Amino acid sequence: MGAYFIAGYPVLYKAVRGLWRRQWFDENFLMSIATLGALYIGALTEAVGVMLFYSIGEYLQDLSVDRARSTVRSLLEAQPRFANVLKDGILRVVPPQEVEVGDLLLVRAGEAIPVDGIVLEGESLVDASPLTGEPKPVMVRPGVKVLAGFLNREGVLKIQATEKYKDTSISRIMELVERASERKARVERFITAFARIYTPSVVLLAVFLAVFPPLAGWGSFSLWFYKALILLVISCPCALVLSIPLSYFIGIGFAAKRGLLFKGSQSLDALAGIKNVVFDKTGTLTEGSFRVREIKEEPPFDREELLEYVIHLESFSNHPIARSIVEAYKPEAKYSVVQVQEIPGMGIRGVVGKRAVHVGNDDLLHKMGIRHRNEVCKLPGVVHVAVDEKYAGYIELGDALKHQAIDTVKELNKMGIQIYLLTGDSAEEAAKIAGELGIKHFYAGLLPEDKFRILREEVMAKGLTAFIGDGINDAPAIAQADVGIAIGNSSSHAAIETADVVIVDGNPWRVYEAIKIAKLVRRVTLENIVLVLGIKAIFMVLGIAGGTSIWEAVFADVGVALLSVLNTLKIWSLRKKLST
Fold it and tell me: Is residue 280 flagged as an active site residue?
């Protein structure tokens, strides 16, 4: 008896506490009833064995769950503990929560960056893996944005804070991970409801099995009581109750480690069944900044001469296109530039050296009466150049594609997902970007309400749909979609609040990763349901038929619980399969 109470004390204590709290039909209650019943019929060895092996199984399960929780713990450890604030030449150490926007911060080698900010001085390699999952250190220098939780590996950095701690990426990550468990997937809610009905039903079946057959003269009371105890041990629902939420917990934690923030397991579940993915263009698949695609000169001008004139004149303009050209080529002061005049909606003109230069759109050429080929007029994203009222050539610009945007679309296509591009840009620009990415379906010239209408009426009718955007104008579509995804740390607060998933680093490849994680979690969940219910059903039949003992029953119960937990842990295998 002493061995029984030593091995079974934790289980018996939890069962009594559950009864006190009116939680009558949990796994501890079932194990306690089964083993006390074994003691009653004199099966002391089996009672001790059940308690011993059940306790060992619980311990092994706890180890597995602890490993699953290590991801969230690593995120907690990445939270900065202090900030070095420079004010009036004095260095003060304060909690990150006290840092104000605009404060100057000093981050030494080995310290975590306390809040999101812009590097003002210094160069260093930083470890971004706690937030983005990117194992390779990233070089940062003045002008580069850094996030709270990044670990400074080498030099000293001076950083200007751009966010309060509560608005930083890592603070949002922790808040979303903590809240994720409150929003459960349908299968989790089903298992919880199922366990509430299943467990009392099994107890009633065991009572019926222990009483009715002996009264009907089909065997002794002790025989059927023993079979009822076997049924109670086998029917314990802990394998399902543990492994199903655990699979979602691991999936959400693993995703968070890679900079993918699911606001609840129901978002993970919905993403597993996605049929259509709709991308906004600017800031989502593209950088939202112009780049020079092509330079085409017209004889007698040469390419270098054309560029010299353009970049000297454009250096006097604040227009985004002008800044893109100047930043791409960074001119040296070779010519004097005088008589500069901005022409609203058309371009800019001035005297570069001793030559009159006009840089602008097709309307500017027509205004000046400068002859040029018709096919040149129709090119999208073109800046035309005229020198001394003669057409000198053009520079074609376009929005730069984000890193891995092409790979993302390619992999989504391989998964059989239909991809759509919605943009407010011109049809010509949309067609060019869609062609580069390999997207067959695109809509151009859209207002926010147009995106909402097309998404609802044309795309969502074809199946579960995810919408990916970054701006406040995308918030209605993000909210409307079956799964709304806000991409990038620069996402508007409206987009982040309405989204089901947030991608921290702005890499569109994370969309593919999110769907892969969601599909694996769903597959593992279904495997566990089939595994657990299948094995339990077989042993229940064997137990009632007299083909198994209470020893085999406890092995079946503990064993299937461990198998389901181990099966759940294979979600970690995606670490090797997902490239960044």
Answer: yes
